[in-house]
From TrEMBL, chain A:
Catalytic activity: (1S,2R)-1-C-(indol-3-yl)glycerol 3-phosphate + L-serine = D-glyceraldehyde 3-phosphate + L-tryptophan + H2O
CDD domains hit by this protein: Tryptophan_synthase_alpha
Species of origin: Kribbella kalugense
Name under which the protein is recorded: Tryptophan synthase alpha chain
Keywords: Amino-acid biosynthesis, Aromatic amino acid biosynthesis, Lyase, Tryptophan biosynthesis
Enzyme Commission numbers on file: 4.2.1.20
Xref: InterPro entries: Aldolase_TIM (IPR013785), RibuloseP-bd_barrel (IPR011060), Trp_synthase_alpha_AS (IPR018204), Trp_synthase_suA (IPR002028)
Residues annotated as catalytic: E55, D66
Pathway(s) the chain acts in: Amino-acid biosynthesis; L-tryptophan biosynthesis; L-tryptophan from chorismate: step 5/5
Described function: The alpha subunit is responsible for the aldol cleavage of indoleglycerol phosphate to indole and glyceraldehyde 3-phosphate.
PROSITE patterns: TRP_SYNTHASE_ALPHA
Entry annotated with the keyword Cell membrane: no
Pfam families: Trp_syntA (PF00290)
TrEMBL record, chain B:
Catalytic activity: (1S,2R)-1-C-(indol-3-yl)glycerol 3-phosphate + L-serine = D-glyceraldehyde 3-phosphate + L-tryptophan + H2O
Role, per record: The beta subunit is responsible for the synthesis of L-tryptophan from indole and L-serine.
Classification via Pfam families: PALP
InterPro entries: Trp_synth_beta, Trp_synth_beta/beta-like, TrpB-like_PALP, TrpB-like_PALP_sf
Subunit note: Tetramer of two alpha and two beta chains.
Name of the protein: Tryptophan synthase beta chain
Gene: trpB
Keyword Amino-acid biosynthesis: yes
GO CC list: cytoplasm
Taxonomy of the source species: Bacteria, Bacillati, Actinomycetota, Actinomycetes, Propionibacteriales
Keywords linked to the UniProt accession: Amino-acid biosynthesis, Aromatic amino acid biosynthesis, Lyase, Pyridoxal phosphate, Tryptophan biosynthesis
UniProt similarity note: Belongs to the TrpB family.
Length: 274, 400
């Protein structure tokens, strides 16, 4: 398999964690929330608290995959005047702060508007690791795939419980870094109960690819993170961290991240094969 | 030309496609297959045609508007979609998709609505076909279209007021998509216009193309020839694609889409997506849209809630780019002048959406000259707009 190449930056960080006998933790916060500077501090707190990969959100006017918590936060960021160039400068600050890979989670139109190749060049130039693209499927992604390959960036596409095996094979073949598996049929946001759709989905993904698989949507505490990393390579946490930043500032983010980081370090089943 | 478009992935040239979350791709594939199978099944198309005839009242009349023609200086024919059950062309699409919902074995329908016409049409189709119906509507629109909210509720639909973003149509679509991602196994999303991800632009076109098919036949019967031009208003673009489709192969018939010019182009307060927008991706398709330098959607403005949308269906983008149809804006003021003119000359109070098309036809009449015959899609009736009209014209109280 071509794992070595496809691991990219985020995948290498996840495998490093896995090699330590634990799951990896991927934390999301949007740029510009609650302010430009406070968002930088929030992500730094997340890094200090132990995330292995940062997922930085690019606030967008029509976030159809996001629940209320992230919608509100990104509205605040946009109301504060956040621009695409500010997201790039946030990435630059974070890349200078630590070696933790920074992926940007973005809906597609802002990238298309910036110019796909131009964005890839500028983003790579400030030390960005890659993009997570929730409304771009590989079928429509030829321009991005070419730009990412040219500029050595990770391409993280999503798979869903509704994805057919054929789509999982096609999508994972287009990924570099890791595969983002959405644990539920629904939008982002904390949920009380673990999803029973996630484990079978991860198993299907793993039969199609050697790439690490991260599971996101609905994970909000260490117990849930532990539950997910029992079968997945990484737990992805978003809305809960956004809420923590809004309510408790960087200290709140640090506290939650430490709880999550403890969760992914609990005893793992040995069945997480590569 | 359009008979082969879109391609199997929903592309009209560089427009269209499927810019959607992966979670919805398999369901969209299933929907595409179900729609193709249904359109090839005489039982389905027969039932659809029966409902159009017996329930909607199709074919709608083609009316020779002689007094309006005198005012316009060219012959104007009105396709009277305002006489359809529920008062607009929207019911054709709602019934087609509701029948498809039943065929797919789903029992819940969601829809978005701006002015409320598509919401009412969907609630109507769901009442008739015994489907559960939830309509998402921006909070701003529920306030300015209270009558249609009451109609939907009376018809048994649940109306959810959307308080996110700009609290208008685009946010209602966002919220409907969020619902659909979580409910797609049992729910069909009846999108109200020929926009969005494949297969919606092509599927909605199939269900509304009867407008143009009927009008073409009626024109031949009335005139012994085709009209010189066909004119329709364009928000998302369903009434226009409904009118245009039958005429696209008729190269001698000019096609005009009339966009909402709002306060006027120069003010930036408009919804003239093709005239003033740039290519981008919104709500699942690549098309023209109103966006800022960063690709963030800009809020649109139009006196017509039904045209007040910052995007447009991808086939219109294609028709504009290839030059088969041309698109031009009409301001709020011009539309309201036409609204009054049609009311006074023909005794027909149009929807403000349709008044844009009438206003466009008045300009086109000057360009084409007195020998021209211009077909206008009168896509809806104006009852819903009487509050707006009363304020605009100062119609409150009694005459002195």
């Amino acid at each position: 398999m071509s794992d070595v190449v496809a691991l990219g930056k985020a995948g290498a960080a996840i495998r490093k964690a896995n090699d330590e006998g634990r799951g990896a933790l991927i934390g999301y916060l949007p740029a510009g929330f609650p302010t430009y500077d406070a968002a930088v501090d929030g992500v730094k707190a997340m890094i200090d608290g132990g995330v292995d990969v940062v997922e930085l959100g690019l606030p967008y006017s029509d976030p159809v995959m996001d629940g209320v918590t992230i919608q509100r936060a990104t509205e605040i960021a946009r109301a504060g005047g956040l621009r695409t160039r500010d997201v790039l400068s946030t990435v630059e600050k974070l890349a200078a702060y630590s070696d933790v890979p920074v992926l940007v989670m973005t809906y597609w139109n802002p990238i298309e508007r910036y110019g796909v190749d131009r964005f890839a060049a500028d983003f790579a130039g400030v030390g960005g690791a890659g993009l997570i693209t929730p409304d771009l499927i590989p079928d429509e992604g030829a321009e991005w795939i070419a730009a990412a390959d040219k500029h050595d960036l990770d391409k993280v596409f999503l798979v869903s419980p509704s994805s057919t095996d054929a789509r999982i094979a096609m999508t994972t073949a287009a990924c570099r870094g890791f595969v983002y598996a959405t644990a539920v049929m629904g939008v982002t946001g904390a949920r009380d109960k673990p999803s029973d759709l996630a484990a079978p989905l991860v198993a299907r993904v793993k039969s199609a690819t050697g790439l690490p698989v991260g599971v996101g949507l609905g994970i909000s505490n260490g117990d849930q993170a532990a539950g997910v990393t029992a079968f997945a390579d990484a737990a992805i946490v978003g809305a809960a961290l956004v809420k923590a930043l809004g309510e408790g500032g960087p200290a709140g983010v640090r506290e939650l991240t430490e709880d999550l980081a403890e969760g992914v370090r609990r005893e793992r089943r040995t069945t997480v094969d590569r | 030309m359009s008979t082969v478009l879109p391609d199997q992935f929903g592309h009209f040239g560089r427009f269209g496609g499927r810019f959607m979350p992966e979670a919805l791709i398999a369901p969209l594939d299933e929907l595409t297959q179900a729609w193709r199978d249904a359109m090839a099944d005489p039982e389905f198309t027969g039932e659809f045609e029966r409902m159009l005839r017996e329930y909607v009242g199709a074919p709608s009349l083609l009316f020779d508007a002689t007094r309006l023609s005198d005012a316009a200086g060219a012959r104007i024919l009105l396709k009277r979609e305002d006489l359809n059950h529920t008062g607009a062309h929207k019911i054709r699409n709602a019934i087609g998709q509701a029948l498809l919902t039943k065929r797919m074995g789903k029992h819940r329908v969601i829809a978005e609505t701006g002015a409320g016409q598509h919401g009412v049409a969907t609630a109507t189709a769901c009442a008739y076909l015994d489907l559960e119906c939830v309509v998402y509507m921006g909070e701003v629109d529920t306030e300015r279209q209270a009558l249609n909210v009451a109609r939907m509720k009376l018809l048994g639909a649940e109306v959810i007021s959307v308080k996110n973003g700009s609290r208008t149509l685009k946010d209602a679509i966002n919220e409907a998509l969020r619902d659909w991602v979580a409910s797609v196994d049992k729910t069909h999303y009846i999108l109200g216009t020929a926009a969005g991800s494949h297969p919606f632009p092509a599927m909605v076109r199939d269900f509304v193309r009867g407008i143009g098919d009927e009008a073409r036949e009626q024109s031949l019967e009335l005139l012994g020839k085709l009209p010189d031009a066909a004119v329709a208003s364009v928000g998302g673009g369903s009434n226009a694609i409904g009118l245009f489709t039958a005429f696209i192969p008729d190269a001698d018939v000019k096609l005009y889409g009339i966009e909402p010019g709002g306060d006027g182009f120069e003010t930036g307060r408009h919804a003239a997506t093709i005239t003033a927008g740039q290519v981008g991706v919104l709500h699942g398709a690549r098309s023209f849209l109103l966006q800022d330098e960063d690709g963030q959607t800009i809020e649109s403005h139009s006196i017509s809630a039904g045209l007040d949308y910052p995007g447009v269906g991808p086939e219109h983008a294609w028709l504009a780019e290839t030059g088969r149809a041309s698109y031009r804006p009409i301001t709020d003021a011009e539309a309201m002048d036409a609204f009054k003119l049609l009311s006074r000359t023909e005794g027909i109070i149009p929807a403000i959406e349709s008044a844009h098309a009438v206003a466009g036809a008045l300009d086109i009449a000057k360009e084409l000259g007195p020998e021209a015959t211009i077909l206008v899609n009168l896509s809806g009736r104006g009852d819903k707009d009487m509050d707006t009209a009363a304020k605009w014209f100062g119609l409150g109280g009694s005459d002195e």
